[in-house]
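Design a sequence for this backbone.
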């Protein structure tokens, strides 16, 4: 029988600006239908200036929860009642659960990335990892990698906007987790080379190489890639960035950011419903052209 929205249907969705391009409504609504859950997920174009009003309305309307994307991930924090450990350390929230008016903020971006590592067939737990960038995606990955048990996290950032934030992030990881974190300037090629020699995994979490600037790479010196290094990119447009193409040519296994996107959604779905997203169905329908 066709699904019908009724007086019992519960609402949730995505807040941010812009949001119309998002794949999340398809992922979540298809999953609700597959599992017979009477919920819907919609996109709402809301920037930080109206965010407080909308979050209060969502709380009052008993929505099951919502996602946040740019530019609302940090701005939402003052309107929430509690934060998960990861959301506290990252300082950003992408998923909120509403339990009878109590709003708890989570961050599933790092969970999504760490599951994508496993899904690609690699195990980085107890090993060293080099992570490029110190923005939203990098912070989420750094914190989740540390929580999950990566032994050493080498954060590599340019001395720009997020340098101070990167220092704070490595300090927090060292204080709150068993992982050892350090920070290196991206311009220091000799130091980067030494870090990559020790690392099992390199992750680009900068926006360098993202469309339309597909000629750019954060590591122009391809002699830094060694065959034991897995190289990944959180970018999924293009599917293969210049970084991934050059690493592949050097014999490194590679994977892109498509499954990070899928698995951050899967983790949010579990937080809201307590049930497993039908990942195979969603993969087949929306992620089959990931390479
Ligand atoms: P962000 O918060 O703006 O951070 C961007 C990072 O890239 C910052 O550390 C920035 O350094 C650095 N950067 C930018 N241009 C650079 C350059 N020319 N050289 C060196 N570093 C540079 O953005 P974000 O939200 O973390 O997103 C980063 C990328 O991840 C984007 O491509 C986004 O699409 C992707 N992403 C993917 C997923 C997924 O599910 N696969 C999820 C989230 C994000 P400064 O601070 O110094 O500018």
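Sequence:
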């Amino acid at each position: 029988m066709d699904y019908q929205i009724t007086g019992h249907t519960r609402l949730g969705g995505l807040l941010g600006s812009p949001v119309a391009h998002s794949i999340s409504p398809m992922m979540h609504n298809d999953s609700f239908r597959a599992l017979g859950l009477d919920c819907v997920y919609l996109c709402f174009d809301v920037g930080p200036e109206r965010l407080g009003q909308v979050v209060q309305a969502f709380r009052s309307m008993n929505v099951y929860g919502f996602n946040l994307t740019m530019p609302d991930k940090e701005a939402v924090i003052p309107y929430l009642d509690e934060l998960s450990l990861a959301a506290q350390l990252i300082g950003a929230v992408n998923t909120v659960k509403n339990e009878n008016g109590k709003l708890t903020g989570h961050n599933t971006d790092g969970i999504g990335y760490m599951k994508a590592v496993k899904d690609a067939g690699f195990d980085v737990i107890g090993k060293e990892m080099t992570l490029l960038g110190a923005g939203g995606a990098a912070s989420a990955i750094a914190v989740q990698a540390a929580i999950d048990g990566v032994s050493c996290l080498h954060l590599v950032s340019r001395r720009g906007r997020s340098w101070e934030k990167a220092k704070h992030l490595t300090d927090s990881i060292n204080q709150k987790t068993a992982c050892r974190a350090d920070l290196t300037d991206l311009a220091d090629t000799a130091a980067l080379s030494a870090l990559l020699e020790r690392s099992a995994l390199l992750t680009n979490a900068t926006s360098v190489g993202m469309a339309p600037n597909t000629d750019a790479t954060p590591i122009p010196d391809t002699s830094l890639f060694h065959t034991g290094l897995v190289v990944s990119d959180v970018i999924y447009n293009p599917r293969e960035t210049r970084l991934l193409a050059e690493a592949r040519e050097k014999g490194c296994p590679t994977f892109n950011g498509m499954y990070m996107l899928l698995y951050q959604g899967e983790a949010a779905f579990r937080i809201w419903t307590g049930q497993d997203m039908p990942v195979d169905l969603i993969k087949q329908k929306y992620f089959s052209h990931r390479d």
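The chain has ten helices and twelve strands.
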